[in-house]
Amino acid sequence: MAKDQRKWPLWAAGAALAVLLVGCGTPSSNWGTGVVTEADPWGAYEAVVPIPAPDAPPRVFQCTGPWAPTTTEVNLIADFGQQAISRADVMQPDGSMAPGSVLLAGEPKLRVDIAWADALGYTIPTRVAFTDETRWGVAGITIGTSLADVEKANGGPFRLVGFGGTNGGVVADWRGGRLANMTGPCRLGVQFAISALASDSAQAKVSGPKVYNSSDPAIRAINPTVGQFWVRYKW
């Protein structure tokens, strides 16, 4: 079955192979199992293959397929399996907590928190968030991505809030770059973390509610990397 395993792409392309995901309830080296249709000289048949967890390249999140703006909790259960979806309070776009859905709550590297505009029907997604150790990626951005690489992904500099406090290091404006115009009705949010090697004096120069350009020498001096990211749906 090694041939089948090599054919599995990132989840964004999974729908093209008509994959049904099941058995995602407990941590393991696999995302779960999938059923694919194979063919040989004797005809077509169904094969069950393992889907590897993203320990190497990250899963690619896009606002399409299971994460389209029309998705619902019912859709996510159909896509990922009943055992993979649970309910818990998750962060809303305004920073408050309210009931939402969680994909793979017991697996931090794969966990996804989904907030809904309709908290009773669990429909109309408003925010999708990832852990600070996630193996998911959005538009080429992953945990640990450098400031310079985020600028490359964006196609130019951006603006971010000074460090310290809840919103410290959050991107305030992509300045019309590529990351401001993701595929689908989505908007990427990123919060940077300061390098542990940055001196206290260097950190003091970029602390506070002031908004800085990512090209500012004082920002570059602390060598920030992506510490958290999320996706908001535009309605």
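the 2nd protein, sequnce then structure:
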Amino acid sequence: MSTLIHSVRLIDGGTEIENAWVLFDDGRVSSRGEGTSYPTAREVVDGSGCILSPGFIDIHGHGAGGASYDGGADAIATGRAVHREHGTTAALISLVTTSIDDLVTRVGIIADLAERDSSILGSHLEGPFLDPAHKGAHTLELLRAPDAASIERLLEAGRGTIRQVTLAPELPGADDAIQQFIEAGVAVSIGHTDADYATAQRAFDAGATLMTHAFNAMRGIHHRAPGPIVAALRDPRVTLEIIADGVHVDLSLIAVVFSAAPGRVALVTDAMAATGVGDGCYDLGGLQVEVSAGVARLASDGAIAGSTLTQDEALRRTVDAGVPVVEAIRALTSTPARSIGRPDIGHLETGASGDAVLLDTDLTVRRVWVAAQEVIR
């Protein structure tokens, strides 16, 4: 079925076009233009006064709707449904630290789902190759240094669908692990790390191209010890994840990061099961999490344990922090897509998948399309 969305402010790829239109046909963008002369379609949507954006892409999220992505196919479906209503049309499925055996099973499940559903972009392994001193909400006893045999088991189980891995580059064997993952087409992200500036830069020179939730679970910036964040900000090859909930990173800092790394910020949720549900007690990777006033923390030590953020809320908070809406939307679309080697998505050029979000002027989601099919909200 063809769908025409017209009279919109189209924001796509870091640019904006006033009075634009986009035509979806057979699940994809068949044409686009501007002005009042546009093609006919079976369904016509008047987007006057609204913004049309590519669908949002989340490369780091753990669940929603009371379900954790570690819980299998049904849990993934539950969580994805919540995020889809908030404009996230495609996502990596992030897995927390567990045993290699369990991860092998879970990445296999995600590989099966990705074969059937193009909106599931694959898996993101956030662990177990993390620094114990910066473990965050990961089980200490299951953290380990990377080894070639374990990595090969994971890659075989993922069948090409492991798209991102977070690791601490100072761990023994990390250099070889980075090469092994990169050769398999996996984007390597440094995070949960005690790396200093030089160690982070060495990892980037080795091929790491991402920083997992920048500022969190790593050394901070000091004027005599700039640390890994400054290394990432200065390296044009590196994309920095930011959780814009006002808890993980102070909102006053977000505009500074966007200015320091233009086109290299990916707004992620790091969302856990409480997202879309509310306060209460939850499980994250076998750890008890207490959510109060929307903030998730481990019951054991109070460490932040993911977020209850959705990407539309991240957009609003980022714009309120002073970031231009064009740049904020790029950080939700083309930038995260590119960071995991998927430049074919995250835009609305002719031929692209019909994944789109219609937003009010206050950046509230009005309508969502996935492969040109409207999401019932």
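The two ends are 20 Å apart (CA to CA). The first helix runs from residue 73 to 85.
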